[in-house]
């Protein structure tokens, strides 16, 4: 069995193997991918992608598996063994995943490799632009100091990211400092601009598959909450103008604040059923 | 019942009576505020937004005290002759309160400027805060109109008086509570000391209010003068450590910060030593433009700048360093920025961390 690093693959090959949304993460800092290929024809027998969490903070390193597929149990086992070696190098203390549509064979394989599995509601909430259009918040007047990030100079954008990081925030992407402004949707992502300085950011990424995904909501100062709401209004209205109502929006409820906000806007919406797994390394 | 209401109402009206005032307190207030302005050249000349607002506060306090003192020159007999429902009578009874309310609004602006140092941000935050004041002014005008049309101590007029009192007190509370909220939010989010002591102004405010409501004695002017003096004394501490050329703190502030961090038992953080090869003021301007939240910059005696922050993520620091290095070269290709940094490893105390940083700085220098 050949175990290959996905970073060495061309983007098009990654798309064929992982799908376009997951493929665009390959090459990002903290994201790693492995593939177990058939020794005969190099066809992928098992593939996985994971990201390392907390590598830049004093907290213990953890790994989160973001993609896993195995068509051959032996290939899957070898892949997971190599994964174990790699994360040991990164001093990871635990691994987890939250995956939808995991096959019974894959569940059995992962369970056999020490993962404790359970089915639960996923943290990702998928809504549409049309759902946002129905919210009363769309009628709120947006102050003139909320601007799209496309008007920012590079220094202003970087200064906004710096402020965010110095306040201990990175959003859902820990590699926020390594992503260029072009990674984000330029017209929907917005900022709070005060005397030329950015003291609030709402960044959305549009995945290769056309899903809008908020990745950072940050504001500082005494009117932080008010500005976060203003930025949300701005982005929602921009999305309604630019995208069809059927465009999907993925809200990752990664912390309590996001969970409360999602529940406030969409109290009846639920996440997909997923398989959650974790193991101590 | 009606008699009881009338008795209480007569007392209510006297809350704002201008006839029981120790005028010497107003004269003293003028002397205190004038002395504050004259004796302090920094206060007179500083172009920092918070210092400019503080000057305006002093001028407002002076104006207020002068208006109140005007009665001395008007003469008691002349005041007694003024009809209660004339405009002059209404102005005497209620006019100083509007100025007092405006002063409190300006105090709120000053607190915000002192904390956030951003005129644009302050304007944006409080543009609608003038509305409660405008509402009190409308009630003030309405009360005058009512006085022209109703007899003294008429129930409608009394009721309006209560509404006015409620609106006045509520507006004062809104402004004062917001000022406290600004300070509390800042102290919660930042680990830096804040020299501004709002708690000092609470005592004169409460004292003046109690004297007015329960004893009918009008001491607002001296209360304002004492507040301004106390505020200035608390802010003056900061001036000692400030390098006025760059707006950053001097090296002598490091000891103060060290004691502050130890007292609050903060752990974690980083220090970056920043040296520009070009003009020192150009480097200072760059750092002013790029200074991150929750950080403080010192101008060191050897010409370097030291950035101190509570952030303990190396990626954040590296990102900031890359940003200032690239921006420095963009502004002036000759101004290369060298940066060394240290992260608190959490096993050492603040004292040990600061000592390590300063020792290693000296060794390399």
Description:
The complex is a heterodimer of chains A (281) and B (365). Chain A folds into two domains: 2-123 and 276-280, Gcn5-related N-acetyltransferase (GNAT) (Aminopeptidase); 126-252, Aminopeptidase (3-Layer(aba) Sandwich), CATH 3.40.630.30. Chain A contains eight helices and 13 strands. Chain A has helices at residues 11-18, 20-23, 73-89, 104-112, 129-133, 154-166, 224-242, 256-265, and strands at 2-5, 31-37, 44-53, 61-70, 92-99, 116-121, 124-128, 146-148, 190-194, 197-206, 212-219, 248-252, 273-280. The longest helix of chain A has 19 residues, at 224-242. Chain B is of the alpha+beta class. Chain B starts with a helix and ends with a helix. Chain B has two domains: 2-241, Rhopdopsin 7-helix transmembrane proteins (Up-down Bundle), CATH 1.20.1070; 249-364, Alpha-Beta Plaits (2-Layer Sandwich), CATH 3.30.70.270. Chain B has a five-stranded mixed beta sheet.
What key phrases describe this protein's structure?
heterodimer; A: 281 residues; Aminopeptidase; 7-stranded mixed beta sheet; 8 helices; 32% strand; B: 365 residues; Rhopdopsin 7-helix transmembrane proteins; Alpha-Beta Plaits; 2 domains; 5-stranded mixed beta sheet; 15 helices; 5 strands; 70% helix; 7% strand; elongated
Brief rundown of the structure:
The complex is a heterodimer of chains A (281) and B (365). With 281 residues, chain A is α+β, with helices and mostly antiparallel strands.
Radius of gyration of chain A: 20 Å
Total individual domains of chain B: 2
**Class by alpha and beta content of chain B:** alpha+beta
Number of strands of chain A: 13
Strand order, main sheet of chain B: write it out: 1-3-4-2-5
- SSE succession of chain A: EHHEEEHEHEEHEHEEEHEHE
Q: Report the order of strands and helices of chain B.
A: HHHHHHHHHHHEHEHEEHEH
Please summarize the sheet with the most strands of chain A: 7 strands, mixed
Q: Total number of β-strand segments of chain B? A: 5
Number of domains of chain A: 2
